[in-house]
Amino acid sequence: MKAPILVTGAAGFIGSNLVDRLLANGAVVVGYDNFSTGRAEFLAAAEKSQRFGLVRGDLFDLSKLTAAMSGCGAVIHLAANADVRHGLEHPLRDFEQNTAGTMNVLEAMRAAAVRDLVFASTGSIYGDTATFPTPEDAPMPRQTSLYGASKMAAEGFIAAYAEGFGLRARICRFVSILGPRYSHGHVFDFCRQLRANSKVLHILGDGRAQKSYLAVEDCVAGILAVLQQGSESEAGFCETYNLGTEETCRVSESAQWICETLGLAPTLEYGGGDRGWVGDNPFILLDTKKLQALGWKPRSTIREGVANTVEWLQANPWIFDEGAKTQ
Ligand SMILES: NC(=O)c1ccc[n+]([C@@H]2O[C@H](COP(=O)([O-])OP(=O)(O)OC[C@H]3O[C@@H](n4cnc5c(N)ncnc54)[C@H](O)[C@@H]3O)[C@@H](O)[C@H]2O)c1
Q1: Average pLDDT, stretch 279-300?
Q2: Does ligand 1 have an atom closer than 6 angstroms to the CB of 183?
Q3: Ligand 1 centroid to 25 CA: how many Å?
Q4: Does 48 score more than 80 pLDDT?
């Protein structure tokens, strides 16, 4: 049997989808999560598997994290403060959860002698880039969000640990992800608003922002594809891969698709301005040729991803009643 894979953030949106896929592929999986935004419901299927173990713990409990990693073959590090929009309300949070938290993962890996890492970074690290589609080696971008900056700093520590301690690291920069168990982001916000009042939908910005989105199944497939990269002998391996679709949609189009799927025709009220919030990037399109060269290709269109997300939210209204756990 292959060594277990430890997934931090296993109870989250992407983490729980990844755990289910790993288990379906026959892997032994250890989930690690503090349930700050994660939900036990997302792991209900995984918990039925003999090959799944859950550790309720925080990234900042270094001895628990190290013990959980003991005997694992790889770590997929997803735990983070994943909401890009509210950084300015809690200026230390992104640094603590995303940069310092990642340092703890690296230290635990060193102590437990685990060499293989996949890290969930973000397209937000490209800030206000002028290069589209944006390749992994775009000129060092100026950061626009505390979230992007915290992930960029974490990437730096990962590269230095790969160099200094022989880690094999794969950094994945995702665009926004859509699909089952989606619990934060604009589709969630729009659906929540329309549940409260189906007549009016308030939209941040002027609706013209163009973004790329990726279905969570495609995101998980990309993570598994990069995990295969870097052979046993390649200590110090550290490669970065963009994950996204080759298309974009405007926020106004996405709002239309959401309303159509819900069968509603509300008045759309735009806040104005080209950015939804301070630090928002009005155009996101990543160059994914590097990952596609490994045989990966997204299967869903953005429109399908939006519709699937709305349908999942409609079928799982409890997620609204409980309230968004992300602050
Ligand atoms: N969802 C997206 O659109 C998107 C886009 C780009 C990058 N990412 C990155 O992907 C990863 C997963 O995102 P997600 O959307 O699934 O977010 P999520 O909030 O659903 O999941 C994060 C999980 O990490 C756990 N967690 C947070 N802090 C922790 C801590 N200190 N100790 C232990 N567990 C902790 C939470 O309880 C949650 O289960 C994050 O690193 C995020 O930054 C997500």
Answers
A1: 95
A2: yes
A3: 22
A4: yes
| pLDDT mean over 242-263 | 97
Place of tokens 């288990």: 23
Mean local confidence (pLDDT), 256-270: 96
Q: Catalytic: 213?
A: no
Domains of the chain, with CATH numbers?
Answer: 5-177+215-243 (3.40.50.720), 179-212+246-284+300-320 (3.90.25.10)
**What global pTM score does this model have?**
0.97
